[in-house]
Amino acid sequence: MGLVRLLKASHPVPAAAVTLLAALLAAAVGLSPAAAITAVAAVAAGQLSIGWCNDRLDMRRDRAAGRRDKPLATGEVRPGAVTGAAFTALLACVPLSLACGAAGGLVHLGCVAAAWSYNLWLKHTVASWLPYALSFGLLPAFGTLAALPGGWPPAWLTAAAALLGAAAHFANVLPDLDEDVASGVLGLPQRLGRRVSVALASALAFASCVLVAVGPTGSVHPAGALLLAVTLALSVSAVAAPPALASGRVPFLVILALATADAVLLVLAGPARHVG
C-alpha cells in the first residue's frame, strides 16, 4: 500500500505516457528487444525521478491548496521517502541511459536535466515551455543514437517531438492553473490564461502530427491521412470544449491521444526513415 501511495506521488499518468511513447519510438527506430527494454527502463527511471522531484518541491503549495490527490499534501507518504525515491530513480537513470551508448545516454540525461530545471526554476518563468520542448525534442535522438551510433534523427522528427513537448506543457498545467496563479507559479500558460493555453496546446500538437505524417516521404500515407483527420477533430474539440471541460483533464487527455497518433505515424513510416 505504501508503494502505491509513493507511485501516486510520481505523476504516474504523464510518466507512463512518456514511457509508452519511448517504447513506441524504440519500435519505430528498430531497436533490438534487449536495447529497447534498456532504453524504456532508462526513460521510466527518469520520468519517476522528475515526478517525485516535482511533488516534493510543490508539497507546501499543495498543502495550502488542500490538494487531496497529492499523497505528500495529505500526509500519506513522508517527504523523506519521496526525496529518497527521486534521487534513487535519478541514480538508476544514469547507468541505464549510458548502457544505450555514450552519445544516446548523454542525450537522455540532458532531457532529464532539462526536466529537473523546470521543477527547480523554469516553471516560474515565461520560459516554462522550454524544458518540455528540449526534453521531448531530444527524445528521438536517444532512440536513434541507441539504434545506430552517430545516427541523429532528421530535423522534421526533432521538430515534431519539440512541438509535442510544448503542447504537453500547455495541456498539463490546465487542471492546476488557478491554484498555480494563486500560489505565485507564473509560467507562460498561467500568464496567457486557460483559453489561449488550450488553443496553443491543440495547435502545437496538431502541427506535430502534420510533421510526422509528411516528414518521412514528403507525402501523407493513407493511414496517416485518416489519423490526421482524427487529430484535427480532437484539436478542434479541445478548443471548442465548454469551460467546465477545459478546466479539467480533457485537454491533457486530448494531447495524450495526439501523442499516441504521432507514435503510430512513426511506426507506419518504417525504421529506416528515422535515422539520419
Structure, described:
The mean pLDDT is 87. The protein has helices at residues 2-8, 12-28, 33-57, 59-64, 71-74, 79-98, 102-120, 129-147, 155-172, 177-183, 188-192, 194-214, 222-240, 243-246, 250-269. Helix 2 (12-28) packs antiparallel against helix 3. It is globular, with a radius of gyration of 18 Å. The N and C termini lie far apart (46 Å). Helices cover 76% and strands 0% of the residues.
Order of helices and strands: HHHHHHHHHHHHHHH
Strand content: under 5%
- Please tally the β strands and state the result: 0
Tell me the major beta sheet: none
Total helical elements: 15
Mean pLDDT, nearest integer?
87
What is the helix fraction of residues, given as a range?
A: over 70%
Q: How far from one another are the termini? A: 46 Å
Spans of at least 5 consecutive residues whose pLDDT stays below 50 are none
What structural category do the secondary elements indicate?
A: mainly alpha
How much is the radius of gyration in Å?
18 Å
Shape: globular
